[in-house]
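Quick check before the chapter quiz. The format below is the same one you will see on the exam, so make sure you can read both the input and the output lines.
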Amino acid sequence: MNRRDLLRAGAVVTASGVAGCLGTSRGPTFEEGFEDGLGEWGRDAAIGPEVDLPDFEWRIEVSTEQAHDGERSLSVFNEGDYDDGTCWAVRPISVAPGSYTATVTVEFWSESESFNTLRDAVVRLGPEPPQAEEDFPSPGVNTTALGQTPYGGLREPLWLADGWRAYQFEWTTPALSTDTLYLAVGTSVIWEGDSTHYVDAITVELSEV
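Here is the expected output.
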C-alpha cells in the first residue's frame, strides 16, 4: 500500500494572515487569526453523491462570537441532516521550492465535551487545493506518523474539550517544485444535528530537510 492509499484508507495554526518565502528566520512561515477578515481565504464544501450540494446547508465566516487570540475567529457551520458533508476554508501560502518538514497547528472550539463523535476537524496542506471530501485524510489519520506523503493533514474528532483545543500534524514533503502550497481547515459531519465550531490561531512552520 502506498502512502496515498494510507492517507485515504486510514492509518494511525495568531494574527492576520502573513505569508512569504522562507528566509533565515526560524519563526512561522504563516500565521492567521482572522482579525482582518477572510482576506485570501476561499470557501468550499462537498457531500456524498446521494445529496445535491445545494441542499447541504453550510456557512463559513469571520465571527466575534469566540476568539482564541484577539477578537475574531473563523466560524464554521454545517447541518447534520444527512450524516454527511464537509466544508472548509482554503488559501494559498507562498513557499520556496525544496524539501521540508511542515508543522501545522490549528485551534478548534467546541461547545462542550461529548462522548459522541459529532464532527471531525479536517486540516490539509499540499500542492493542490482540496476539491472533495476524499482529498482530506480518512477518519483518525494524522500524517505525523506516515513519513513522506503527497500532502499533509489530519481528520480527528471534535467535541473532545469544552472550548478551545489544539490540533497539530507534521508533513514530510516530497521535493517541491511549486512556490505555492494550499492550506485548508474545516469540519466534517459525523452525526446528525446542526453544529458550529470556531477556528483560530493557525500557524504553519517549515523546516528545510
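If your answer matched, good. The CA atoms of residues 121 and 156 lie 5 Å apart.
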